[in-house]
Design a protein that fits this description.
By secondary structure, the protein is mostly helical. It is built from eight helices and two strands. The model has no long low-confidence stretch (mean pLDDT 85).
C-alpha cells in the first residue's frame, strides 16, 4: 500500500498536540469536530490489526464506479463486480466469504496487507466497538 504520505511515528506526537489545541479552540467557538475520534485512532496505533479482527466484511461494502465491489475502502481487492453479478451473489459468494475468514485472524490480516491498508485502519474504532460486543460470541455459536 502507499504509505509514502503517512506521518512518521516521531511526527505523531506533534500532530496530537496540534489536534488537542485545535479541539479546545473549536470547543470555545461552539464547534464540534472529529478530533476526539482522530486522537483515539492515534492511541490505538498503527498495528491495530495485530490486536483485533476486522468485521468490515460483515457490515460494510463499497462499490466503485467501475462496478467493483470491495469489503471496505482501504482494500483494493475486488470481491466481485456489480455489472456481472447481483450484490446478493457477491455478498454471499466465495471471495467475500474468504475475505471474512481471512480477516478473523491476525495471520489472515497480515496476508491482507498486500491488498488492504490495514496498518492505519480507518475502521479501527468501529472494529474495536464490535469486538468488545462480539468477542465472546464464537464460543457459543
Amino acid at each position: 500500500m502507499d504509505t509514502g504520505r503517512a506521518l512518521l511515528p516521531e511526527e505523531e506526537p506533534e500532530l496530537r498536540g496540534f489536534l488537542t489545541s485545535l479541539q479546545q479552540r473549536a470547543k470555545a467557538c461552539g464547534l464540534e469536530t472529529n478530533v476526539p475520534a482522530t486522537l483515539a485512532r492515534y492511541r490505538i496505533g498503527r498495528e491495530v490489526w495485530r490486536a483485533k479482527p476486522c468485521y468490515m466484511g460483515w457490515i460494510d461494502v463499497r462499490i466503485r464506479t467501475t462496478g467493483d465491489v470491495l469489503a471496505c475502502s482501504p482494500c483494493r481487492q475486488a470481491l466481485g463486480n456489480i455489472r456481472e453479478s447481483s450484490l446478493a451473489e457477491i455478498w454471499n459468494g466465495l471471495p467475500f466469504r474468504q475475505f471474512r475468514r481471512e480477516t478473523r485472524t491476525r495471520a489472515g490480516l497480515g496476508r491482507m496487507a498486500r491488498n488492504c491498508a490495514c496498518e492505519f485502519c480507518c475502521h479501527a474504532l468501529t472494529n474495536a466497538r464490535l469486538h468488545r460486543a462480539l468477542k465472546w460470541l464464537p464460543r457459543f455459536v
